[in-house]
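pls read this protein:
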Amino acid sequence: MEKNMFSINENQYKEMTDEKLIENIKQDDNTALNCLLERYNDVVNMKANKFFMVGAEREDMVQEGMIGLYKAVKSFDTEKQNSFKTFANMCIERQLITAVKNSNRQKHIPLNSSISLNSAAYEDNDDMDKLEIVDLKAEDDPSDIIANQEYSKTIERKIKENLSEYELSVLYEYEKGHSYADIAEKLKTKVKSVDTAIQRIKKKANKIKESIDS
């Protein structure tokens, strides 16, 4: 039986801050947990959309994102950390990157990187039209960072040069976390057409990355 020692109704939960929900969760309030997970559902979906992982479906990436969110909930310390939102964003993205790294390692794929569709890793950013290549082997050395930035710009430019106008439109909406159905409605096309375009974009991106790395 779900434990709700506070006898709080649904609307009151929705009005609580993230940090207050965390306090309740630490007292085994499962309703607070469900409320917080639901609150961040869109965030997880948006971040999951930013990564392509070989052999994985979108649902797999969403699941990894939810694992990251759950880890954030369990490890957040209200006394030491001020913002759960910042912490959650970091944990979700770290989990997604770790999933990509582990997948590549298990499959012996030399391409140890993921294609991310948004440059902001741990903070809010409304600029959703920038492609970025996240090199999972990069060190924190400034020269490496500069080199990786130039590398990312090259990949970004080549990807955009090889996409049709329709594919660019689909990608733009996809980056914003919209579902295939929403994209289809916005572009006045069919869901199947959107899915096919996404698959083409992934193939083109991987082919471009491989050609540059070879």
Observations:
- The beta strands are 51-52, 113-116, 132-135.
- The two ends are 57 Å apart (CA to CA).
- Residues 1-6, 107-147 have pLDDT under 50 and may be disordered.
- The chain has one domain: 40-213.
